[in-house]
Amino acid sequence: MVGRIAKVLLTTAVMALAVATEGSAASPIHFSVSGMIGGTSSEVAATGLMADYFAPTARTEATRSLRGGVECEALLWKWLGVSLGARYQQAGQHTRTTTVLYADDVFPHEFTSSIRMDYVAVPLCLKAGISAKRGWILARAGVSPAYLLHSKAAWTIDGVRVEPGTMRMPDVRIDTYDMSLIVGAEAGIRLRNNGVFALVQYDRGVHNIASGLSGKAYNRSAGFCAGYRRFF
Amino acid sequence: MRYARYSVIVALCALAPAMASMDFYSYRKYVPWNDSVELYAKQWLGYSQLESSEVTVTPKGGYLDIIEDAWISSDLTQLHLDGVTNDYFFQGSLPIPAKAAVTGVQTWKGDTLFRAHLKPASYLSDNRYPDSASVHQALDSRVILFQQNTSSGYELTLSRLSLGERKHVRIRYMLPNTGGGSASYSIPILFNTPNGARPRFVTITVRADSGDLSYNLVTGQGEIQLRDSSSHIVPYQSSFNLLYAPRVSSTMHLTSFNQGAWAGTYLMLNTALTDTIIARLSKPIQTVFVWRWNSENGIVEYDQYMQLKGLSAYGYQLVGQARAIRDAAATLARSGNRCALIHSVTGRSDYTYTSPELDDSSQARLDAYLAQFDEQTLYQRYNKTGTPQPTWVPQKAPGVTEIERGRTEFVSALSRAADLLVDTSTSFRHTVVVSAGGVYTSRPKNMRSTVDSIFAGLTVYSDNAQWLGVDVGASVPSMYEQGLQTWAGYYFPSFSPVTVQLKINNQAQPYSFPMSGRSLGTLAVALRTALDWDTTLQWIGFDQNGVVTSSTTESPQVFRTPMDSGLAKVWARDESHVAEKEEVYPGGTFGIVTKATYLQATMADMYFDYTETVPFLADEEIQAPRSPVKRPVSAACRQTVSVKISGAMLCLESSHTLRALRVFDIHGRLVRTIDLRKYGAGSGSFRVPLSAIRPTGASSIFVVTIEGEGIHQSLKLTAGGIQW
């Protein structure tokens, strides 16, 4: 499914590039490079025992973190373009301190949990919208393959760190790769060859990121970025 | 490796006696590898085959008189062996039942009967012999050889066989009742060999009657009641059972002998501490069990590694508690006490089950309800309740609302229990609180005042119960505070005797047998005293402080047989018998096989007159071994006189007093008497001149007798000296 979407997007981009190149005299391609930074709120949507792992209690909250990256854009026409970027982003979620019980233990315990995953993503987007001389408004959709840099799961019971693979914490392996679908929108102001813009984007993971328990887990994140764009 | 093989062989040999195997042997000539001298060693040739078996049982009351006839032949397995002699014999172990007293063995060679005699035990080795004559001689002494080697190991040897001979052997033993009054005997087919063929049928003859000695015969084909003497030909089986038909809890078998080594009054007592006795020694009690489930989840769990669903530890705890409550309630009901049940599950405001009232039928309803909580039913009921979560998944702690609800359920359940215990006519009213699973321990409340108000005048026991929001340990009075004692796995008021004493009166003194009131059991004991026994049993109950709670009497079934030698033999065989005067040689005195006596028939022990009167036993007895009476003997002391000729003097020396010499000629005529007092030469020494002894004109040969205290010794004097 993900591969098919990526294939469609790439095919569309190449065809658009070919059309643009063919009619370059009337409609030249405008390239630009942008850098952006912002924040994101992420969580993990899971099923089965994976849901108990990523959200052990009802007081589980999304993780807020920084994200940022660079992006190259080719505007084929004033209303259509493609972009390819590289982006650092965090994912995961955490549980606030909660009084819990265990089935084999009648004594109450103070419990916290957090899981954090650091990715480098390469979003490939198709953009469409309005691009004028003084600014632009574009909607984007695409795919974002990501590579896991680091992951860390930390559970504490009564303030004591619990090791994975023990009777109080299962051993779950986070997959090295992830794949998300992207939808978002950006709006910018252009001054000659420079521009600033704001971007909102929602990433919906389509690849099961964890194994070791029954059920599946997918990343979800929504982010906001502000950026600078240089037009060539 | 070689030693390991030997150890396995030794282990198998150690197990062999329990398997009751008779094998077929001979002797074989061989030359040891480190020697050149020929030896004859025992050679295994094959198995024995039981061709026919007849068991005749004569019930006597406290024991069975059993005669087993067997016809066995040999299965020759070892063929083509060189040097085998024509001396064949059977040898193997017999599964004589424990405490059975073997009184005789006999066999036939053609029409000649060989009857074994009892002899003091001696160590007999039959492994190898230096020559064939020794082999013949040894086997001639083993026509029958039956000995007890260990407490339960018996060995039988039958020699002087021919190849393929159908050997008839008869063995007789007394089998005592080792249980309560309802006797149950297991009678083995002694020659049931694990190897070799077996007969199609076995004939069982029981001399029962329709009165006191009626029995039920239990075979593989079912159970039949025997009302008269009859023979039953049943398909072959290795053992069968005889059950005493009359339903009695106690029997007494009495006999007495006025004289002889076995003089005394013998008693075989078989009784049992039954629910009836316990009920008669107990005070009435009413009990309500409160069974609390602290969770309805987690009864079935999923093993992720095995990929299997099954009952969890909590589920098994529920099953175990249901069984324990059923058992306790059933035990209470057997004693005539009523009991009821309240089943409470957390989160359910109503009771899952409660006995409508405490009456005679409430125990049956309780039992029917708890019977459904077995492993299979619980699994089927809770299998579909979703996959149980693993223990690492945190659970939400109960809030204030749930805790308050738990306390309400606690008070409600106990109040319901108190409502059921309204009959104040019983001595004790008791509640047992049992819970399964753990509870959230935060904020437990001490509800002692509430519990005290509910259970005013009643007793309550918490079996380490847990209840959400309640500190049960502090809320329920302790068992020490209420004076409770352990009973049927829980704590109860002292309504049942802790110790029960059985007392039997003898004319000399009463005999008492303390027994635990907590466990029902049987008592079988053989006693011998000089005076008669009272035929009434007295049962006395004691509480944990040793105070008499109650007493009752029982009239057992009495078998009284004058001069019943079998009962005396059974008493003698029982190492745990009770006696005013103990026997040191019961085997020989009472004519039974023990480790100190064995039965042996040699080629000389032939009998042609079957009606020979046998002492001690009745005429129909097959064997009356007259044991050699062991008498103390003083140490051998040969009283001798030292005699020598020194010069012309006859010198005599003795530690005994010598009085005279009498001199006889060669025709036996007394020719002279010499008073030795005249010739004293010190303490015990005499010097007699030969001239004083030798008569004038006597021949050169004459006889002299030396006489003294305990001395009468002769010597012959010749011209050449002395000849004794």
Q: Any descriptors?
A:
heterodimer, A: 232 residues, mainly beta, Porin, 12% helix, 66% strand, elongated, B: 724 residues, alpha+beta, Rossmann fold, Immunoglobulin-like, five-stranded mixed β-sheet, 13 helices
Report the strand count of chain B: 46
The CATH architecture of chain A: Beta Barrel
Average pLDDT of chain A, to the nearest integer?
87
Q: Write the H/E string of chain A, N to C.
A: HEHEEEEEEEEEEE
Q: For the report, how would you describe the main beta sheet of chain A?
A: 10 strands, antiparallel
Rg calculated over all Cα atoms of chain B = 40 Å
Inertia-based shape of chain A: elongated
Number of DSSP E strands of chain A: 12
**Name of the top-level CATH class of chain A:** Mainly Beta
- Roughly what fraction of the amino acids of chain A lie in strands? over 45%
* Quaternary structure type: heterodimer
Describe this structure as you would to a colleague.
The complex is a heterodimer of chains A (232) and B (724). Chain A contains 2 helices and 12 strands. Chain A is mostly beta strands. In chain A, β9 and β10 (194-205) form a beta hairpin. Chain A is elongated, with a radius of gyration of 21 Å. The model of chain A is unreliable at 16-26 (pLDDT under 50). By secondary structure, chain B is of the alpha+beta class. The radius of gyration of chain B is 40 Å and the shape is elongated. The two termini of chain B are 65 Å apart. β3 of chain A pairs antiparallel with β25 (395-396) of chain B, so a sheet runs across the interface.
SSE inventory with pairings:
The complex is a heterodimer of chains A (232) and B (724).
Chain A: H1 2-22, E1 30-46, H2 48-54, E2 60-75, E3 80-102, E4 105-121, E5 124-131, E6 135-157, E7 160-162, E8 173-174, E9 177-191, E10 194-205, E11 210-211, E12 217-231
Antiparallel strand pairs in A: 1-2, 1-12, 2-3, 3-4, 3-5, 4-6, 5-6, 6-7, 6-9, 8-11, 9-10, 10-12
Chain B: H1 2-15, E1 22-30, E2 39-59, E3 63-76, E4 88-94, E5 101-109, E6 112-115, E7 117-120, E8 128-129, H2 132-140, E9 144-148, E10 154-161, E11 167-176, E12 184-188, E13 201-207, E14 215-219, E15 222-226, E16 229-235, E17 239-244, E18 251-257, E19 264-272, H3 275-281, E20 285-293, E21 300-303, E22 308-311, H4 313-334, E23 338-345, E24 353-354, H5 362-370, H6 375-382, E25 395-396, H7 400-420, E26 428-436, H8 448-454, E27 459-462, H9 472-475, H10 479-482, E28 485-487, E29 490-492, E30 499-506, E31 510-516, E32 522-529, E33 533-542, E34 548-554, E35 557-560, H11 565-573, E36 578-579, H12 586-590, E37 597-601, E38 606-607, E39 642-646, E40 649-653, E41 658-664, E42 670-675, E43 685-689, H13 690-693, E44 702-708, E45 711-718, E46 721-723
Parallel strand pairs in B: 2-13, 18-35, 20-23, 20-26, 26-27, 32-36
Antiparallel strand pairs in B: 1-2, 1-4, 2-3, 2-8, 3-11, 4-10, 5-6, 5-11, 6-38, 7-37, 9-10, 9-37, 12-17, 13-16, 14-15, 14-17, 18-19, 19-32, 21-22, 23-24, 28-29, 30-31, 30-33, 33-34, 39-40, 40-43, 41-42, 41-44, 44-45, 45-46
Helix pairs in contact in B: 4-5
